[in-house]
Design a protein that fits this description.
- Chains A, B: It is a multi-pass membrane protein.
- Chains A, B: InterPro entries: TMEM175-like.
- Two copies of one chain form a homodimer.
- Chain A has 498 residues and is mainly alpha-helical.
- Chain A is built from 24 helices and two strands.
- Chain A has helices spanning 6-14, 19-25, 31-47, 49-53, 64-97, 103-117, 119-128, 134-159, 166-169, 174-199, 203-230, 237-240, 254-279, 284-290, 295-300, 303-328, 335-349, 351-359, 368-395, 397-400, 412-435, 440-456, 458-473, 485-493, and strands spanning 28-29, 100-101.
- The radius of gyration of chain A is 26 Å and the shape is globular.
- The interface between A and B is large, with 96 and 95 residues.
Chain lengths: 498, 498
């Protein structure tokens, strides 16, 4: 949840000279409002996992209806996550154009946030009543409302141009930029308006239009990419440079990607403690009757839940740690990296499910194998998409990465090890449960305990491995640059990650 | 959730020259880790309101046991909020000393966070089993664990002094600072160790010691203040300047106060949508049976819940807006302001309770008067403490505030109106329910709808009021400075807020 404060600091340092302008125009740096919006959006995106984890499953009644309920809730979670990330990306674009805010814009932004919070409810309605067009109609109304508020924000900001970012403020193409950004903002709502009309008499088409709206940025990117490939380079680069710097293909703001990710990791890590506090405090009567008054014995019965909590918090924390380490070395986040990050976060949001699965071991030891495998799979996908962010960044490494982690950089091997640790560990655990299915729970817990120590000792381990490899491969002593031995070893060791 | 990025940017701009140092020492700017910690801590502090709001109350069974359960859960919420804010303040102090982090410190910080998340559980145990010493024993173990991890962080940072903040790094009193900060970090855990020992044979004393630990910073501040008053000025100011710049009386980092507050506001605003999505999706069978298949009619029954949700989100959002406006003009946050902010946030965390109360109207219209009053009271206290932050800041206005909002500043009257709006509105609504008790729900909803519009038109309203007052009071035209009429009017209008 970080935001550069340079703008505000600049205003502050102007001191009294800036006062008059402040009063006249009432402008403020937007960094805190954006941080708050990121926090809100990341929580809304993730919180719909709670109904999934609260689905009570016991082997006796694991029938069709429960399966359907679970599938329904997972669908709502995934759709919510997707649409909120799309809304977040649009919000990021919008406030790359609007550089400063005043009170009216802050209040309009709050109205926009409130409308976005209603989207999960429309999904719940849609999934519970797939044959009734009301859900999709309400969804369309929400999207139209969001679009209208965003169009108001654009209109207001272009009416008071000192609120725009400096590049557009000084641009000669300002009117063109305005048309362009309004088209971007209103494209989705216009489609939704059509969908709302169709929902009244032929709603299956509305669903198709809704899917189009959700995937619009990616469809638009794909078509542009295809066009570029077909027609050679971009048709009019000279025309493109200034007015379209706000388009959908510009890299996302790295700070906002970090802030949104931090919000997701923080809420996922803390959702677990809520379950612990609500469900795992024994009932005084039970303690008296079942455990003859011994609270310690009663708590002992919850042992597996606590173990699962520790494991789960450690997993979320360490995935955040890997993400944090990676983004320390990232210069800017391309669209592909943003998409991979969102996929990774969607699986991170599923980790409370993995926790629920492992903590249910105590109750249903029969199907623990399935549960361990689901947990391993969720961890694997969350971490492999993190790894994919790095490989995507390496493809354009001069633009996207700091020199230290590029091919041949001093931190390259270390970063590789950091990001490869969880995919390898979860894959190993998954494979081990296939071979030693009787010890699957023990294997899973062993993994959860071993990985944090591996992270602590990672630097040492990487150095040892590299040194061992250096000895084994018997490197030529032709370029004995002091302190530069490692990168050499790395570039030989890692010709192409992935 | 904001953090200045200047340090990191400085490192980045050094480019390749900073690489070697980076590799050698592996240091990183700590801003993102602190933002993540703030998010985690604010969520943990607030999330314990959920068990309170999930307490099912119906007038038929509102007996002693339900009352006791509700009181228990409110007590857990308040204790958790208090202890987490104490832990947060200690964490802020610690990372004012430790300026940069490396991987080991980031992992130690995660361990510290994990231990803090267990504190709510120990409170739940304590409150559910007040006669069993296990809860307090576990609490003490947690605090000792947190203290040990923090001592490790201090030890590690002083062992690698490049991790310390520059002021201490260059100080000649470094060893003394280390002793001092270690004493601060280990003071609480030492008391808890004694409490843990006592919990084994005479646990009431443990509770007394626990309360001491929680209020330690404030007790310590009060004693220092009394000592200062009794002995005149501080005894050795020359000695105090450098090594004790890390002590408990220095102002808190404004950025971290903002980040923590943003986290609380964001989680409170979004807790509500979870209830809406989980509880207010009608059951397909019910729709078929009770509403003869009409989903619109079924949703109509949830109308009051949605109205309450809108009102509640608007209240949280606008309180955040007032907080945001205030802190835009704050230069640094003193300890008193920090304490008032935390009190305000504790009531903001209670807003979902107010929501639950108002959304229960539909079900139990009998005791709606009580519920409207509880809601008004929570909103009043949340907003009056915000107002108190401002008055506390005005007492030391040259240090704490930007010139624009000081007495006579151009934004003074406007800020006064912004912060006074909610206390006045909630007080007015409360008074109105006393006079017109039959229309209490209508009055409450009217307030929730009117206040956002008041915020939108506030600048206009304040100007109109000031102009009217200027005409009424018939100001002397001796100092007709153009554009300076307002501050004059303000200074006459507002001799001393509060």
């Amino acid at each position: 949840m970080s935001r550069p404060q340079t703008e505000e600091q600049a205003v502050d340092s102007e001191g009294d000279s800036s006062l008059h302008r402040r009063d006249e125009e009432g402008t403020q740096s937007s960094h805190r409002m954006l941080g708050f919006s990121d926090a809100l959006l990341s929580i809304i995106a993730t919180v719909m996992i709670l109904p999934v984890t609260h689905t009570e499953i016991s082997p006796e009644q694991f029938d069709k209806s429960i399966q359907k309920l679970l599938a329904t809730r997972i669908a709502v979670y995934l759709m919510t996550f997707l649409i909120v990330t799309v809304a977040w990306a649009a919000h990021t674009r919008l406030f790359q154009v609007v550089g400063k805010i005043d009170d009216t814009l802050a209040l309009l932004n709050l109205a926009c946030m409130m409308t976005i919070t209603l989207l999960p409810y429309t999904f719940s309605l849609m999934v519970t009543f797939p044959d009734v067009p009301l859900g999709i109609f309400l969804f369309c109304v929400c999207v139209i409302a969001i679009g209208s508020v965003q169009a108001l924000i654009v209109g207001y900001a272009f009416h008071f141009p000192h609120l725009l970012n400096l590049q557009i403020q000084c641009s000669t193409y300002r009117a063109q930029s305005r048309r362009h950004i309004l088209r971007l903002v209103l494209r989705g709502p216009a489609l939704c308006f059509v969908a709302a009309v169709f929902s009244l008499f032929f709603f299956p088409l509305s669903y198709v239009l809704m899917v189009t709206v959700i995937f619009l940025p990616h469809i638009s990117k794909a078509t542009t990419w295809c066009k570029d490939k077909l027609m050679g380079h971009r048709e009019s680069p000279a025309h493109n440079v200034e007015p379209f710097s706000i388009d959908l293909h510009a890299p996302l703001s790295k700070e906002r990607v970090e802030a949104f990710s931090d919000g997701v990791y923080a809420i996922v890590a803390t959702l677990l403690i809520l379950d612990i506090c609500e469900d795992n405090v024994p009932d005084p009567k039970d303690v008296q009757e079942k455990f003859s008054g011994s609270l310690v014995a009663a708590l002992g019965a919850y042992g597996p839940q606590f173990l699962a909590y520790f494991g789960s918090f450690a997993t979320v924390g360490l995935l955040w740690f890997a993400h944090h380490s990676l983004f320390l070395h990232v210069r800017k986040a391309t669209q592909t990296m943003g998409l991979l990050n969102i996929l990774s976060l969607a699986f991170v949001g599923g980790l409370p499910l993995a926790y629920q699965q492992t903590s249910a071991f105590a109750r249903q030891p029969r199907d623990e194998l399935e549960r361990v495998r689901v947990s391993c799979a969720i961890i694997f996908f969350a971490s492999i998409f993190q790894f994919a962010i790095w490989t995507a960044a390496l493809l354009h490494q001069t633009e996207t990465l700091q020199p230290a982690v590029r091919f041949g950089g001093q931190e390259h091997a270390f970063m590789f090890a950091k990001l490869a640790l969880y995919p390898c560990a979860s894959l190993l655990a998954f494979a081990a449960t296939c071979l030693l299915s009787r010890f699957s729970t023990a294997i899973f817990h062993l993994m959860q305990i071993a990985v944090p120590f591996a992270f602590l000792l990672l630097r040492l381990l990487v150095r040892l491995t590299l040194a061992a490899l250096q000895v084994l491969w018997n490197l030529r002593p032709e370029h004995p640059q002091p302190g530069q031995g490692e990168p050499e070893a790395q570039s030989q060791l890692l010709p192409a990650p992935c």
